[in-house]
Amino acid sequence: MDLCHVPATREKGWYLMLMAPNVKGPNYAWLDPSRLYCHPQGLQDCVADLLLPFQGDPIDMVAGIDAMGFILGAAAASVLQKGFLAIRKAGHLCVKTEAQPYTDYSGREKVMEVRTDAISPGLRILLVDQWIETGGTMRAAIELVERLGGVVAGVAAICIENSEGGQWIQQHYKCSHCIPPRLQPRFDHHQ
After folding, report:
1. Which of 37, 35, 85, 43 is nearest to 60 (CA)?
2. pLDDT(2) > 80
3. GO CC annotation: what is one (predicted)?
4. CA–CA separation, 60 vs 111, rounded Å?
5. Strands 97-103 and 109-115
6. Residue 38 burial (CB < 10 Å; 0-12/13-18/19+)?
7. Is 7 inside any structural domain?
8. Spatial distance between the Cα atoms of 129 and 32, rounded to a whole number of angstroms
9. Span 94-114, mean pLDDT?
């Protein structure tokens, strides 16, 4: 699909066909969603689908996870007319931070940080990332928000895989993702 075409019928997830498969080998994610961000209607519909389950819910702020979660998170914050908080990989914030170690989807040990002056007790935060594969990155973000007294109002991602970590997140938090149920097994098996 080209980046200007908009299908006549746009059912949930139509924009998933804009994503590109990995052509660079095993050191990269199996699928690249960044192409769908280039499509104006695709990005709008993706964000609308992510936010639909949270309509009417009290949300005070949207937090996006470094780095691709910044795109969807900032777009969601704009639609909701809320502020946006960047949850960063360690070493990028020059203010006082709270840190949380985690293991990412590739098995690498990392540390995530959030500024301590942005989350006050009871602040309801919608956490947004591009993809939840093993759940390690999102669980670190959840830990940071809750340690600072914030409340996780929900979790949104293009895909939440049916991994052990993905299941844990879906069992404990209100979640939204864009994968139709009939396609979920293909995404879980990286097909």
Report:
1. 85
2. no
3. cytoplasm
4. 25
5. antiparallel
6. exposed
7. no
8. 13
9. 94
pTM of structure = 0.95
Query: What b/e readout covers 150-169, taking b as 16+ CB neighbours within 10 angstroms?
Result: bebbbbbbbbbbebebbeeb
Residue identified by tokens 């139709």 is: 180
* Length of the chain in terms of residues written: 191
CATH number for the domain harbouring residue 104: 3.40.50.2020
Q: What would the two tokens of residue 170 be?
A: 């879906």
Q: Is residue 57 part of a domain?
A: yes
Pairing verdict, β 109-115 and 83-89: antiparallel
**What is the structure's pLDDT at 182?**
93
3-class DSSP string for the chain: CCCCCCCCCCCCCHHHHHCEECCCCCCCCCEECHHHHCCHHHHHHHHHHHHHHHCCCCCCEEEEECCCHHHHHHHHHHHHCCEEEEEEECCCCCCCEEEEEEECCCCCEEEEEEECCCCCCCCEEEEEEEEECCCHHHHHHHHHHHHCCCEEEEEEEEEECCCHHHHHHHHHCCEEECCCHHHHHHHHCCC
Can you tell me which residue has the tokens 């639609």?
79
- Model confidence at 120, pLDDT cuts 50, 70, 90, reads very high
3 in a domain, yes or no? no
The tokens for 9 are 């019928």
Nearest CA to 60 out of 115, 123, 151 is that of: 123
| Residue 41, token pair as written in the block | 């209607």
